[in-house]
């Protein structure tokens, strides 16, 4: 069960909602301004708005703002990985797109919205969790939170006609499906074990890619048909510890005030 003491939207949840919408608007502004990064209609904003609606309409679920923060964090990491190219949109927008003001405004809005959503979404989830009156199956919920964007993004990339590493995308898609399966059908022990094992796998993949990647190709690592770039190594080395932490922290038991009083009296 995922019920909260107060089903209405908190201020932090509202900020998360508007932050996600602002991210979508920022990307559309860049697209309309002729940004070459978006040659076709970008589906990303639609996903941002869908998550924003989930945050607003399912406020009884304590973890929905965390899903928004996670999606935003993935985009933030990608933005910083390509920082030199992204900074060009702020320093020399005329060299990027057809409408320089739109490129500059869209990029600046996106940066601000991402940072705000990262912080507000995490704080809103913590606030909602502390207000929860019932026991929360944290490990299974976290599997659902992490698995959902991997499945949605993986399916989006598979449908789009742009060039993507299909094997790398398939790896993330399979992991997302497995995470959702464990989250909905698995036991608590299975969910915790899945998070810990996945964290170790992604961390190892990131470390090996960094060590074994070709220095002359910016640490690109090719494993058969799987092509991993330096940005992938960074993501895996960040995502791995996050999953490991989630796997172990989710096993901790939280005592509410009544439970703490009963413990102290005995």
User: Total number of helical segments?
Assistant: 10
Structural class: mainly alpha
- Overall pLDDT level: 82
Helical content (DSSP H or I, runs of 4+): over 70%
Strand order of the largest sheet: 1-2
Sketch the topology as an H/E string, one letter per element: HHHHHHHHEEHH
Work out the strand percent.
under 5%
Number of domains: 2
List low-pLDDT spans. Answer: 1-7, 255-266
Rg measurement, Å: 20 Å
Give the key terms:
2 domains; 266 residues; globular; single chain; disordered N terminus; disordered C terminus; mainly alpha; two-stranded antiparallel sheet; 72% helix
Topology:
Layout lengths: L10 H22 L11 H14 L6 H18 L1 H9 L8 H32 L6 H22 L6 H20 L2 H25 L8 E3 L2 E3 L1 H20 L7 H9 L1
Antiparallel strand pairs: 1-2
Helix pairs in contact: 1-2, 1-3, 1-5, 2-3, 3-5, 4-5, 6-7, 6-8, 8-9
Can you walk through the features of this model?
- The two termini are 29 Å apart.
- By secondary structure, this protein is mainly α.
- The protein is built from ten helices and two strands.
- The model is unreliable at 1-7 and 255-266 (pLDDT under 50).
- It has helices at residues 11-32, 44-57, 64-81, 83-91, 100-131, 138-159, 166-185, 188-212, 230-249, 257-265; strands at residues 221-223, 226-228.
- α2 (44-57) packs antiparallel against α3 (64-81) and α6 (138-159) packs across α8 (188-212).
- β1 (221-223) and β2 form a beta hairpin.
- A two-stranded antiparallel ribbon has the order 1-2.
- It is globular and about 55 Å long.
- It folds into two domains: 1-136, no CATH class; 137-255, no CATH class.
